[in-house]
Design a protein that fits this description.
This protein is α/β, with parallel strands linked by helices. It is built from 11 helices and 11 strands. The protein is about 35% helix and about 10% strand.
């Protein structure tokens, strides 16, 4: 007869390891087609990038693009530059130039961007790469800005963000941390903001306005601001850390990696890997051939361990959330 309870040894059940991330290198790439039906577009769509930046592909209202995407079984986040004035990919819709809207009440900006959002939404666009949050301080891109002081400009940045959201698309404030003083467009060469730290950080207020208004996307530029960092902003971890510290939780995308400002830092593929390693969620390019190069480079860097698949998986989810 037993004098106490019998203790039975139970098998130890170990939890199953979490499945590895299923992210593909193309998932964090915002590519370009070079026109619907072109050789480049067929190659790009076969790789199904996470996003596409559009140029002339909406000339027919987007019907050919929608058909091409359906055939390729691709569901990219569609983005377009519809800032207003001179920078409009769809010439038949607004908004007015920022230099005009800065003279009107913020409500006018909100209403015009709402109408733009409605029109883009009907065409299938998910993200308008606007508004520009740079301060007009005499730089090469001042005509794209809402003003020369952070307060009034910030009111219009926030209004544009709200308007786009009301129209059914996401906004994307750009070009963090700001291009307002640089004399060289980053597309054409190296751009350096040589102002002291106090001036550079003061002009971040417009980006804070956009974040407070609920913007879901921020574009980081290739400007060099020695007061903050000595490399292009998109290649510096401090850039992304600062944005997150400002309370931004959405998708951080790069400006075009095809910009001449980035030539000293390697091939377009090498720069893509550096930007992602620094903290970018997605990298943007403006030609189909760059799209293919960047996808290959990211794939190689992931296999070699230079890029963490788990981190890219989280970034891809932030990009997809913009749909």
């Amino acid at each position: 007869m037993l004098s106490g309870p019998v203790l039975l040894a139970l098998p130890v059940v170990h939890p199953s390891p979490a499945p590895p991330p299923t992210v593909r290198s193309a998932d964090v790439v915002i590519g370009a087609l070079g026109g619907v039906g072109s050789e480049g577009s067929r190659l790009v769509l076969a790789r199904r990038p996470g996003g596409l930046v559009l140029f002339g592909e909406l000339g027919d209202g987007g019907s050919a693009l929608r058909l091409a995407l359906k055939k390729a079984k691709a569901r990219p986040v569609l983005m377009i530059d519809q800032e207003g004035g001179q920078v409009r990919r769809v010439r038949t819709i607004g908004p007015s130039a920022p230099t005009i809207l800065r003279l009107r009440k913020p409500r006018a900006t909100e209403l015009q961007f709402r109408d733009v959002g409605l029109a883009l939404h009907r065409m299938g666009v998910h993200v308008n790469l606007a508004p520009v949050a740079d301060i007009d301080a005499g730089g090469a891109t001042g005509f794209r800005s809402f003003g020369s002081t952070p307060g009034p400009a910030g009111l219009r940045v926030a209004a544009a963000v709200r308007g786009l959201r009301a129209g059914g698309v996401a906004g994307c404030v750009k070009h963090f941390p700001g291009l307002g003083t640089v004399r060289t467009n980053t597309d054409d060469g190296i751009a350096i903001d040589r102002r002291p730290l106090s001036a550079v950080t003061r002009d971040l207020a417009t980006f804070r306005s956009g974040i407070a208004a609920g913007v879901r996307c921020v574009m980081v530029s290739s400007v060099i601001a020695p007061a903050l960092f000595r490399k292009p902003a998109m290649l510096c971890p401090q850039t992304y850390a600062r944005l997150r510290k400002m309370g931004f939780k959405g998708a951080i995308v790069t400006d075009s990696l095809d910009a001449d400002a980035l030539r000293p830092y390697g091939s377009v593929g090498a720069v893509a890997v550096k930007a992602l390693a620094a903290g970018a969620d997605s990298v943007l390019v403006t030609s189909p051939w760059s799209t293919l190069q960047v996808i290959r480079a990211i794939s190689s860097a992931t296999k070699s361990g230079r890029l963490d698949p788990s981190r890219l998986d989280a970034s891809a989810k932030r990009l997809r959330a913009l749909r």
